[in-house]
Amino acid sequence: MTTTAETLNLPLLPLRGMIMFPHTVLHFDVGRxxxxxxxxxxxxxxxxxxxxxxxxxxxxxxxxxxLYTVGTIAKVRQVLHLPGNNLRVLAEGQRRAxxxxxxxxxxxxxxxxxxxxxxREDFATPEMTxxxxxxxxxxxxxxxxxxxxxxxxxxxxxxxxxxxxxxxxIAANALTQMEDRRTLLETIPLKERLEALCVxxxxxxxxxxxxxxxxxxxxxxxxxxxxxxxxxxQLKAIQEELxxxxxxxxxxxxxxxxxxxxxxxxxxxxxxxxxxxxxxxxGTPEITVSETYLxxxxxxxxxxxxxxxxxxxxxxxxxxxxxxxxxxVKERIMEYLAVMGxxxxxDPKASLRGPILCFAGPPGVGKTSIVKAVARAMGRKFIQMxxxxxxxxxxxxxxxxxxxxxxxxxxxxGMKRAGSMxxxxxxxxxxxxxxxxxxxxxxxxxxxxxxxxxxSFRDHYMEIPFDxxxxxxxxxxxxxxxxxxxxxxxxEIIEVPSYTEEEKLQIAKLHLVRKQIEENGLPARxxxxxxxxxxxxxEGYTREAGVRTLSRTLAKVVRKAAxxxxxxxxxxxxxxxxxxxxxxxxERFLRDSIPREAYPGIANGLAYTEVGGEMLAVECITMPGTxxxxxxGHLGDVMKESGQAALSWVRNHSGEFHLDPEFHxxxxxxxxxxxxxxxxDGPSAGVTMATALLSALSGIPVRPDxxxxxxxxxxxxxxxxxxxKEKMLAAYRxxxxxxxxxxxxxxxxxxxxxxxxxxxxxxxVERIGQVIDLALLRQ
Length: 779
Fold this sequence. Notes:
alpha/beta
């Protein structure tokens, strides 16, 4: 029978991941301030302390709800001070106690606890004696199987006569599971505790027996492996004496050689390498090198081709699924598939060398994703290799096998990964390659991308020809200027232009909104963004050629809508212009502001950058001086030369415009292009500089609703320029009324959507005089 003594008020010491039993001694370290204070309080009184176990070891300041209610009253026998205000405590458990309440006194948790007193008369019953014997028997069996119980501990346990002390000692030393230890500590009646201990010991004996069996099996396996190694070494020595030294690995390589359809040179190289491997002495480091080389040869997709799916309707559907617009790109892919289909219809075994296409355009217009769609439309494997920052030609050709750790180049590695000889192979960002003392990777690409050479591409590591002629190589670039001319000559350039605002609107409606709703885990059509709100987002929060920023902005709108959905408990959120502004804050971009009043010396130009078209205001002033020309605004050499050419043309025609013929000696001229931190270059600002210069010298303002672009010559001719679509889009955003373009750029304007063309009064010019007549407010 169990009773409780008078309630005691003791300092509390919570333990993490440990349980202390009565009649046992336990070492532990104390570091928390309240725990250190509890130990010090106990040492200043009668050294008695209540030890309880935390439920969650992560809790730093446990309260009553964080502690198990049954613990142990212990006597602190020894305290050792450690660095960092830590204590190492030696305590001896005395008896169980049940927590009644918890109070805090001067940084010490004081626990009101009821000690548990076991009725000693129950210990002498026959049933209790039988339980004690059974418990000892189980413990002896466990000690025989497990290595955790020492002989000294077993003798100490056998010498214990008190059943209560016996149960606690065995539980503390034999049980490892926290749940089992806690159950036995909380089981107050001794009979029930001994029965529970016997169950736990029986289970531990079973587990220990299995562990011992597994250990014996592992030891036996290790011994067998050592024996096998010794016998194999003997067998090798006998085979070497008899000249029969082909191993299983060599035979496997010979079988792979027979099954793999290598070309003649590759087969000869592989046979030679296998023979060389067979002659090597066991343990030679060269064995690993040869085996790696042979594995690379046999793992290449020799003679494996995926069957092309020549269905124009299917290809159109796949290309249109995820990409809006891109008319030129899709037409070129359709042409390739049509030609392939016609060739295969005439000769099913015909091989058609793939074209080498280069998709050139600003970031974010879908160059990489359209290539993935091309591979899917053709039913081919897709491999992507990013060339951004590649400076070592070994990335392309690999390292020669004379170097330690040599591996093939990324072209061969990509073909191995593809598992076929006709994948779609994308070289991404080909314009970002560099060169240094390690070589020029752009020159290394010449062989890869040359249809007359890549049928026998030789990697430095492999040293055997590999056919790349059936691969559809596609490259992407932002600008073509940084690509060397010989490499550019091997590629068919397809311009991927910037998106118009109307195209961005359609892309957002058809693809981006749905994609962001799905990626953010919302139900389909749960966020509905109006067309007016989409236009507002495109105009006010994005300024880019592609749609990456638009996609991120829509993701922010969807996330904000998700918050509203939970706060307002709505299943569908409607996003209009006002909601979009509330979600995104003030507009980041305003329409390119152009002066509404005409000023002498200011002309509107148009520029093309890597991220699309921009308005380019050219400002010119004159001041008394000696004829010095100053050009500012972070201009490149070509743009500075355009300014000098404009000045020369104006000086040559000063009489026609009634200018002082000596102005170049009496006046200093300063031409500035605003946003001086942004680098600018190119010849297309020539007509704008000439117009601004003539306006400043004559005092006649330039029409503010006119924008112009074109290269100027000393003879006054206006030459064609590039980036017409992007420049027209910049003018479209700025509400320009009249656009002055070189006459030879008329063909480029025809590719611009009709609704944008109708916005402008487009004037095509051949001479700078025509520009002056159109741009100045008066003659």
